[in-house]
Amino acid sequence: MAFCVNCGQSLHDGMRFCRFCGNQQPGEQLIQRLRMEAEQIRQIALMMSNQQAMQQAQYNAQMQQQFNNQQFGQQRRW
Length: 78
Prior knowledge:
The chain is mainly alpha-helical. It has one domain. Strands 1-2 form a two-stranded antiparallel sheet. It has one helix spanning 28-77, and strands at residues 2-3, 10-11. Strand 1 (2-3) and strand 2 (10-11) form a beta hairpin.
C-alpha cells in the first residue's frame, strides 16, 4: 500500500497516477532510493540518541559523585 505524494490518499502499489487528484507518482527506483535514505537517517538518529543518553548518564554519575563527595566531606567535619 502506498500513499499519494500530493494528496496523501492511499493507493495500490505500482500506480503511476493518483486516482483521487491525478498527480503523477514517483517511480519504483526513486521510492527504493528514498526508503534506503530514510533507513540511513533513522540509523544515524538512533546512534545520536544513544550517544546523548550515554553522555547524560555520564554527567548524572559525575554529579552524583560530586554530591556524595560533598556529603561525605560535610559529615566528616562534624
